[in-house]
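[Meeting: bench + compute handoff]

Bench side (C.D.) handed over the final construct sequence. Compute side (W.E.) agreed to return the predicted structure before the next meeting so the bench team could plan truncations. Sequence as handed over:
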Amino acid sequence: MKYECPCGYVYDPAQGDPDNGVAPGTAFEDLPDSWECPVCGADKSVFEKV
């Protein structure tokens, strides 16, 4: 399942966020609480399932 930030960035667990140290295959729920949207810096709590 993918998760979308209000700014339009979509977190895809299959791709992770390698630019910010998140390996491919990392579930959204397993992201550290300190992880933020790499585009706008929003907290992960504002993301919605898509």
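W.E. noted at the follow-up: The chain has a mean pLDDT of 97. C.D. will use this when planning the next construct.
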